[in-house]
Amino acid sequence: MESTLKEIGDGGSVLDLDPKGTVGGGVEDIYGEDCATEEQLVTPWTFSVASGYSLLRDPHHNKGLAFTEKERDAHYLRGLLPPSIVTQQLQEKKLMQNIRQYQLPLQKFIAMMELQERNERLFYKLLIDNVEELLPVVYTPTVGEACQKYGSIFRRPQGLYISLKEKGKILEVLKNWPQRSIQVIVVTDGERILGLGDLGCQGMGIPVGKLSLYTALGGVRPSACLPITIDVGTNNEKLLNDEFYIGLKQRRATGEEYYELLHEFMTAVKQNYGEKVLIQFEDFANHNAFELLAKYRTTHLVFNDDIQGTASVVLAGAVSALKLIGGTLADHTFLFLGAGEAGTGIAELIALEISKQTNAPVEETRKKIWLVDSKGLIVHSRKDSLQHFKKPWAHEHEPVKDLLSAVKAIKPTVLIGSSGVGRTFTKEVIEAVSAINEKPLIMALSNPTSQSECTAEEAYTWSEGRAIFASGSPFDPFEYNGKTFVPGQSNNAYIFPGFGLGVVISGAIRVHDDMLLAASEALAAEVSDENYENGLIYPPFTNIRKISANIAAKVAAKAYELGLATRLPRPADLVKYAESCMYSPIYRTYR
């Protein structure tokens, strides 16, 4: 991946640290949230000590009916609450009962967002304790529908909105955000939201959702997370004509105007928050995603979840699947449907891992991987007309026009979908892959569920129960010929929270490909024999905080090994250190 980005960018490496490109700074836990234990008393600061009515309206410190008698006296809450005092556990039980009564996922999403806006710790307590049930609500697939309807369900702004109107004033806008110690920023321009296309300013649901998972699954403090949407317009006619649309009603800025705004943003972030803030690019269109990652990877701590996060989680699935399908990565042939950010990012990371395992040049290991785009198989005869990020995958082969023909010609053992187009793994395609392999690995990664290349039921039925299947969005277990199959979910949420935590705890100042490989290997190692017996190639989300701590430790260790970590001295036990740094949603006792 680094070699590809070098070609796009200036040819530099993330290990070439230029003093002119680095600044002092970083983040500090000024409120003692990280270092204090749950038993220690803390002060509920806002800009002053919160009390009375303002305390009940402050989501960071509000506990609702869980305020004790002593706290009600100390903070002028008498009469502002009913006399009953309940535990956080009882609050959680009541809210889960309420949420389960809603029939529509979007109703559950709105209920969770409303909870986050009034009681932050209770929101994260619910999400952590009920992660498998609530993850599809706050993240894919429901977040896609929420973004489509964001203008209608918009109640209270979350995050920062930076539009073309703020050009020349972005640093001032960043200073309007009340929190100063930011560790992770997730930013989108809304042009390619999941598989739903250009949603403009309404793409804010993605950074908000991603950062809630950074906290719930990775343990990064909520106060250290900043969601940002950069609004340069939209080309979505439906939104431009929607009276409830909340963004700029103009066509997208492109070219110099676009990149000048992004450069001002990147410069302002570094100036305001320092060298060690992780900037995660999210749901940018292909042409911008690669350019931005290539341009800023050597000067900023940047990470693109669509390119690098997806690649890391899919590589982990492929590595763990070897126990079911046999052989090494180098023994297999990979065929992708989709050659955008996700497809080429996954392909490059797989090629890098094969190169690492076999000591073969990555130029050679790429030849085990083939990609199909909208014009057919990517081959050498098409090279002159290809976008730069597709060119490394243009191998010698006669032209092939469609996926089914490509399957028959290439004879893949692994079929991966990242096309963003639903139902493209047809019955004929899956039957052809199954005819070649006893246990074909089929990964239908596109989100949301409606855009998945096939369903779990289709994969298992058309392969006669032989497929090893994983998807981007969740599918329910499926029974075929008396056997129950549990589909795996190749969800980026396995990787980016733990990866981000590892970057934060090590004080890393750049992201290197070897850190992504370390995250993949750590995730693959978490799959148990019991998981394999159920046909799973990913571990259950119920253990995600432990998984994230282990991933964080491996990522941090690699950052130290590469000389990219700045938090010294290095902790003796990185797993324990990662766990000690993780945010806890348990209520604190106020003075």
TrEMBL record:
GO MF term list: malate dehydrogenase (decarboxylating) (NADP+) activity; metal ion binding; NAD binding
Region called Disordered, residue ranges: 1-20
Binding-site positions, (S)-malate: 192, 447, 491
Binding locations of a divalent metal cation: 282-283, 306
Any one GO CC term of the record: chloroplast
Essential cofactor(s): Mn(2+); Mg(2+)
Reactions mediated catalytically: (S)-malate + NADP(+) = pyruvate + CO2 + NADPH; oxaloacetate + H(+) = pyruvate + CO2
Residues of the Malic enzyme N-terminal domain: 116-297
A single BP term in Gene Ontology: malate metabolic process
Residue ranges of domain Malic enzyme NAD-binding in the record: 307-560
Active site: 139 (proton donor), 210 (proton acceptor)
InterPro entries attached to this UniProt entry: Aminoacid_DH-like_N_sf, Malic_enzyme_CS, Malic_N_dom, Malic_N_dom_sf, Malic_NAD-bd, Malic_OxRdtase, NAD(P)-bd_dom_sf
Keywords: Metal-binding, NADP, Oxidoreductase
One Pfam family per UniProt: Malic_M
Cofactor binding, per record: Divalent metal cations. Prefers magnesium or manganese.
Highest taxon of source: Eukaryota
Membership in a protein family: Belongs to the malic enzymes family.
Protein name, as recorded: Malic enzyme
Organism from which the protein derives: Cucurbita moschata (Winter crookneck squash)
Taxonomic path: Eukaryota, Viridiplantae, Streptophyta, Embryophyta, Tracheophyta
